Amino acid sequence: MQQKLRVLLADDDPVFLRLLPTQLANENFEISTATTGGSVLDVLEKREFDVVILDVDLPDISGIEVLKTIRTLESAPEVIMLTADTSLETGLTAMRAGAYDYITKPADSDQVKELIRKASDKTRIVKQNQRLKVAAATRYPGVQPIFESEISKRIFAEAERVAGMDATILITGESGTGKDVLANWIHSKSGRAELPIVSVNCGAIPENLVESEFFGFEKGAFTGAGKQKVGLIEAADASTLFLDEIGEMPLSLQVKLLMFLENGKFRKVGSVRDQTADVRVIAATNKDLKAGISDGSFRADLYYRLNIIMFELPPLHERPEDLEALSNGFLERFKSKYGRPELEFSNAAKRQIREYNWPGNVRELKNAVERTVALASGDKIERIHGIFESGVISGAVPTESKPELVSLAWLEKDHILKVLEEVNGNREAAASILGITSRTLYRKLKEYRA
Ligand SMILES: Nc1ncnc2c1ncn2[C@@H]1O[C@H](COP(=O)(O)OP(=O)(O)OP(=O)(O)O)[C@@H](O)[C@H]1O
Ligand SMILES: [Mg+2]
Prior knowledge:
By secondary structure, the protein is α/β, with parallel strands linked by helices. About 45% of the residues lie in helices and about 15% in strands.
């Protein structure tokens, strides 16, 4: 069902205040009333409205003055003025002061209904534009996921099944296993896909800014808050908020996020008004959140609130069918990117892909295939560049003379030289990657030269 349009009706005439709501009773409106200009401004501080209907003659502050004040509030509702004056003049003054339109009393209820709908559409469009601006800044390029393994097929099938629900989802998995890809894919399969997903890396926002990034702030909330700011939660209204690296979220924000997840309400920094937002949350982490709970850096209650539905993406080397499909998919992609349609993997390269354990998962595979395609000289890719722990020998000796089975010492030397090549001969860096001291590396290199 569509959300009710929230209307604030302000008039000091008690008969009119009773009459109009009765005439509008069958509509999808939620009508609140006020009798003074002061109380209109008070109520607007505390609650959100789509439209305000305001009488020009109010007992305390003139309706026009109230209108002018409302127009200075950012993301303010549109205002329809009521006037008993049949001459054009008051209406024009109201329009000049920023009214959406005006109605001359006695009000025709059909005209009122029509105006309420139009004005609230405008209010919502203005607010949505503000939100889209924030969301657009966080956009992640859409990736068509590639998967062939049984486990991935099961994950994507289940993800598609729950995509349309509003339940919170937690995605875990090592770095580079495809958590972003899955989160974006779920959003794209949900009823919220028309709006962009709002993504945030919880580890990347400085702790002192985190609250205002999430919740936004009111004009004047602190020094430098010259303009009201729309936060990520508001930007994700009617869409999905992707909380990446949720394990890095500061504890103070975890409490506030939990409160928002419980009741859909939040408050801008410096505001006394609760706002609502209809947000679907998907969180991801490559950390063990249970360990975070044990050491006190992650709240247990938030954890249980987030993992209502949970997906665990296994490391790439545990999904050989995905590995093959992904390496072929990436080869196709980079062949066209680099204008090399003839390129193919040799059997040796295929074996190298199969046997390497891909600690950086899909990200490492993608980068390795891109680098390899960019550097390839012939039609065949003889080896994958820049991966170190392969059981397949490459690089140090020409591929043709490559022995099938080699000694450990040969493998060690080959590996050390490859690492050195990769770090441009920097021995400190190579030693640290290899997990040996620089002295040991120095000694081994001397042996090789001998
Ligand atoms: N199933 C897939 N199909 C196609 N590309 C994929 C797939 N999974 C991952 N990728 C690609 O691999 C890279 C890493 O994926 P992603 O960013 O989703 O990993 P992640 O798990 O979020 O990593 P991190 O924990 O470091 O944030 C991206 O370039 C992504 O496009
Ligand atoms: Mg990620």
